[in-house]
Amino acid sequence: MKNFLLFTPGPVNVAKNVRMAVCREDICHRETEFECLLQSIENKLLKLFEIKNIADYRAVVITGSGTAANESILSSVAGEKNILIISNGEFGERLFRISKVHNKNTFLLEFSWGERFDLKIIEAYLIKHEIDIVAMVHHETSSGMLNPLEKVGALSKAYGVMYIVDCVSSAGAEVIDMEKCHIAFCSSSSSKAIGSYSGLSFVVGKIEEFEKLKYLPVKTTYLNLYKFYHFINTVSQTPNTPAVHLFYALEQALINILNEGGSNHYAYLKSKAHLLRKGMLELGLKFLIDQKDMCSVLTTVHIPSHIDVGIFRKKLREKSIIIYEGKGCFKNRVFQVGNIGELSYDDIQFFLDSLREVLQSFDMVETKRFVSINDHNPMFTYTKENLENESLISVGK
Ligand SMILES: *Cc1c(COP(=O)(O)O)cnc(C)c1O
C-alpha cells in the first residue's frame, strides 16, 4: 500500500494502526466519547513532554496545521507587551511575521540561516532591551539545526522573560523537558515526528500562564488560546467543530510512541538518521551544517554543482522517493532528506541505493558532455531537457 516513501520532514508515512484509526466510529464532539478521546490525547501529550507535575500543565488540540498552534500562542500571549523572536531560519522568520500581525511590539534578533545562536548576543539583547516574551524555534527545519532549548530557557528565567517554543518538527524526536527548560508554552503538530496525519496541532502550557490569558485582549476568535483552554478545562471539548477522526489517528500515534518508550523511539530515529548520513557521506555528499548540531529528524545536503535540483527530485520520484528542496536563501543550494514516519532501515538502504543510481546518472551526462565538446559536435545544444533525456537513456530507462 506504500505508494510513496516520504523522506520529508512531514507529512510522513503513517503506521498501519494510525491509518486504521481514522475508520473508527462516528461520534459527536459534544458527547462524552469525544471528551474521553480528548482527555486521552491530553494525558499522552503531557507524558510526551515529560511533565512531572501534571497538575501544573494542560494541553489543547487545535484543528489546523502547526502554524495554527503558533498563531494561537503568538496572538494570545502578548497583549501590549514586548515580544522578541530569535531566528536563524525560515521558521523563525515565520514566527516573526505571525507575531507582527498581532503584536505591534514585536522585535527580531536575527542570526544567519544555518548559523548557531550566539547566547552572549541573546543575553546582551535581554540586558539592553525591555523584553517580556521570547519565542524561538527548537528545530529550525529549514537548515536542520537544533537550537539550544535549555540554554535559552535558562536565560529567559534569569531575566524574568516568558519563554515560548515552536517544537513543531522536534516533538516526538527529541527530549523536550518543559519544566527543566522553563517553557511557558510550546507548540507542535500531528504530522511530523509524532507520526500521524496532518491537520492537527497542539499547545502544551503551564496552567498559570493559560489563566493569565483571560485578561489579555482577544486578537483572533478561531485561534483564541484562552478559549481552547477554557473549553478543555470546563467541558473537555474544543470551541469549534474539530476534525474528529484525526483525533483518533493522533491518539494512536501517541500510543505508538509511548508504548515504544520515548527514549527508545528517539534512539531509533537517531540510528536511522545515522545510517542515512553515513550512506550519504560515503556517496561524497556534503552537509549544510555540522552533524552535532542536527536534529534526528532530517539531513540538509548541498546539491553538487552539476545537478539541477528539479531533475534530481524528479528522478528520485520515479523511484517512489519524495524529498524536499531548500527554501529561501537555500533554494537551489540544498536538498533535505527526512527519516521520520514509517521508514524502516530497509527503506533507508533503498533510498541510498536509489540515490547512488541517480547521482551516477548525472555523472554520466557530465562525461558525455565532455566527450561531445572534445569531438567538436556543434549541432548538439545542451538544454536542461535533453541533458535529462540523455541521462535517462544512459541509465537504461
Ligand atoms: C512544519 C513546521 C511548522 C508548521 O508548518 P505547517 O505548514 O503549518 O505544518 C512550523 N514550524 C516548524 C519548525 C516546522 O517545521
Short description:
The chain has 397 residues and is of the alpha/beta class. It is built from 13 helices and 14 strands.
Largest sheet: 7 strands, mixed
Distance between the termini: 25 Å
What is the succession of H and E elements? Answer: EHHEHEHEHEEEHEEEHHHHEHEEEHH
Average pLDDT number: 92
* Bound compounds: pyridoxal-5'-phosphate
* Class of secondary structure makeup: alpha/beta
Basic shape: globular
Number of helices: 13
| Gyration radius over CA | 23 Å
Quantity of strands, as a count: 14
* CATH fold annotation of the largest domain: Aspartate Aminotransferase, domain 2
* Helix fraction by DSSP (H/I, runs of at least 4): 40-55%
CATH architecture of the largest domain: 3-Layer(aba) Sandwich
Low-pLDDT stretches are 369-397
| Name given to the CATH homologous superfamily of the largest domain | Type I PLP-dependent aspartate aminotransferase-like (Major domain)
The main sheet orders its strands as 2-10-9-8-5-3-4
Strand content: 5-15%
Provide the CATH top-level class of the largest domain.
Alpha Beta
Number of structurally distinct domains? 2
